[in-house]
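PT: before anyone asks, these are the final sequences, not the draft ones from last week. 124 residues across everything. Please model them as a single complex and drop the result in this thread when it's through.
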Amino acid sequence: MSDSDIYACQRCGAIDCKLWRPYSTFDIRLKCLDCACMTADPSAPIDASQYGADGSKPKPGLAESAELPYLFRRSWEIEWYIPAVPSASGSYWGYGAIPMDPMSPEHGDWLAWVALPLRMVEAS
Ligand SMILES: [Zn+2]
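LR: through. Structure below.
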C-alpha cells in the first residue's frame, strides 16, 4: 500500500474530510480544501471561504440564476483540482465522469463524497 492509497491530504495529512485531486488521471496527489486553495496557484491563493459544506462554490454570474439547476450554478472545482471521489474500481472518478447525476447507477459514490465534512474535524 502506497501513500497514494490512503485517503488523506498529502500536504497536511487531513483525513475523514473531502479531498480533491489534480484532474490529470495520472496524478492522484490528494489535497484538502485549504491545501488545494493554497497551492493550486501559489501566486494567488484561492479564498477557501467561498466553498460551502457540500464542497462547491457559486459559479461567477450564474449563482443568482434561480431557473438553472443547482448543479449548474455551482462549481466543485478548485482551479485544476477536482473532487477525489473514490470509485468501486479502487481509483477515483475521472474529470467529467463523476456520477453527480441522480439517475447515475453510481450516484452513491458522489453522495458519499458530498457527505464528508468540508474539513477534518479536529479532536478536542
Ligand atoms: Zn491539507
